[in-house]
Input
Amino acid sequence: MPTWATLIGLVDPVGKVIVGVVSAPALSARWWAGENLGAKGTFNGSVRELNVSKVSKLSDASLSYSDLIGWGDRKAKFLAIQEKIWRTRGHGDFWSHMLVAEGAVDVAAEPSLAVWDMAALDIIVREAGGRFTNVAGVNGSLGGSGLSTNSAIHEKIVKALNGH
Output
């Protein structure tokens, strides 16, 4: 699978990511963002602005994730979300979150990630109009897990994952 990348994020002293770059040479793609500067991507040499989707109902949403390992107590809830979602795909890792930033996927979820796996994703998704939190709904890339959405359905996903 050509889904590997170099991820670089610059975090300010209070823990907020302010610049991020994801480069996936095997996909001929690169994504980047800076705080209040928007998000962009290069695809086969063509640059375009990134914007998340406008999907607002779970029944119309698509979800991308790596696998079912690591969900622990949330696994049953995660599977239940998949029953409510229009489509699921296992693209996984950085690519799921970049697909959210591109507007091709509405939700990306990973139950366990390190900050170096998430920092660049965080700012790119946010600058594309989305939201990036951990699976408990805490903003930022320091929470040990990653949940990217188009913002419109974020709270619905967080509530469903956490039994609210």
